[in-house]
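Lab notebook, entry 465. We have the chain sequence and a SMILES string for flavin-adenine dinucleotide, and the next step in the workflow is to get a structural model of the bound complex before anyone spends time on docking refinements. Request logged below.

Task: model protein plus flavin-adenine dinucleotide, output structure tokens.
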Amino acid sequence: MTVLVVGGGITGLTAAYTLGRAGIPTTLVEAADRLGGKVRTESIDGFLVESGPDSFVSYRPAALELARELGLGEALIGPTQPRTVWIRSRGRFVQLPEAMGLVLPTRLGPFITTAMFSPLEKLRIGMDLVLPRDGLDRDVSVGAFLRRRLGGVLVDRLAGPLLGGVYATPIDELSLMAVVPQLRDAERRHRSLLLASLASGRAAKVGGSGSPFVTLAGGMGQLSGALVEAIERSRGVDVRMHSTAVALEGRRGGFDVRLATGELLRPEAVVLASPGPATAGLLDAIAPIAAAHVRSITHGSTAVVSLGYRLDQFSKPPAGHGFLVAKGEPLAIDACTLSSLKWAGRAPDGTVLLRVFIGSHSPAVLAGSDAELVALGKRDLALMMGVHGAPILARVARSMGQMPKYTVGHLERVAGASAALAGLPNLTIAGAAFRGVGVPHCVAQGRAAAAQVAQALSGGVPDPV
Ligand SMILES: Cc1cc2nc3c(=O)[nH]c(=O)nc-3n(C[C@H](O)[C@H](O)[C@H](O)COP(=O)(O)OP(=O)(O)OC[C@H]3O[C@@H](n4cnc5c(N)ncnc54)[C@H](O)[C@@H]3O)c2cc1C
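Result returned:
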């Protein structure tokens, strides 16, 4: 073995696949009994249940390109049309206005007529047209930035639910520069965020548009599965399950990596693609400053409760792709995707698959049992969607302490870790904790990590000791 990849999530799999294709002898160690990490699709009684991601964006091309490269081009599917999403706010459902960009309208018409905001609230949002730039260069929270320009109502009712859940972080802690630097850029260039969003809408119309989301007919597990198959086909990559890396030290010509089994591996280069907390622990001995930076990236928790119902259990037929819950609603759930209405092939005929997210609004409830989380999901759905009776499928997937929080200053923490590792080009860190949580970000990081160690090896690297 020349390179050791630690962690068999989408980041580590991509790195191992890329190294294998470059003909570099590689070993991938995975702590669990399966590969894919947070990407997990299961077929249960005709339902296609996603425990982690259910899709990815196509405007960051890394995942789309990888899927095509792996021969999955034909399996790529977009969501059903039209894309109707609701916000649960002040006890009722309001449709997300058509033509929304990140958090602002790309066309004025639907926003002016939306029932989501009162005329007075719309006036406050419109103050963005005249407010000066904040003139700040440092990172601030997305919440603080948007509250100043657009008012608290837009943040609590729209931007918070849209962004906060993705990062398991309240919007008032979320880093503007790490998550939506384009908003700061828009303010710099156009001053008004509304004018910038409307301009981007006009540009998109010229270039054409569609839904930015794609998935695979067989679920996201089809992507990780195809990667695993490609890795198995490429001779030179050895994959080991039930193999937890517990210690990493430098030696002449490479590294000593100890597994929990006691076995010692002696690679020349290492890609750490484990979640942040595990990566910090592995860096402690060899690069304590990098370890401290990585450890300062905190992690939160979330749960996905998948519930299957017969159509006749709904008092009226469900519609749309799902809904987000605004701040302050007396509900336990944060959001719900109507998976089988959003994507083809997710549930048997006559049934509906729902995916409920819990943890952002009420983190304390995650301490409850699976049965308690299912009961909360059922209760909130009964209240909001009139669904009654026991679900015919109930499945809980938790990500406890594994959701990286991109809080204010995130980019400095990542830059600090990278700088502390600069003298060790044959040791690199990658994955959701660092340069983007989305599957395309992780794929891109896996590729970049593989390229970095391949280049370091070909150039001859200084000994880590
Ligand atoms: C509920 C949920 C919904 C999501 N939805 C979306 C979505 O719709 N679209 C999107 O783009 N993204 C989504 N994401 C984010 C995305 O799925 C993740 O950020 C991404 O899959 C993380 O990949 P990773 O390889 O960096 O980490 P992981 O998937 O966490 O993989 C890390 C792997 O390392 C292993 N490991 C840990 N410690 C060790 C060790 N010491 N030794 C060996 N192995 C170790 C773990 O067992 C794991 O398999 C979602 C995430 C979650 C949790």
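Notes for the group: The two ends are 20 Å apart (CA to CA). Worth checking against the assay data. The first strand starts at residue 3 and ends at 6.
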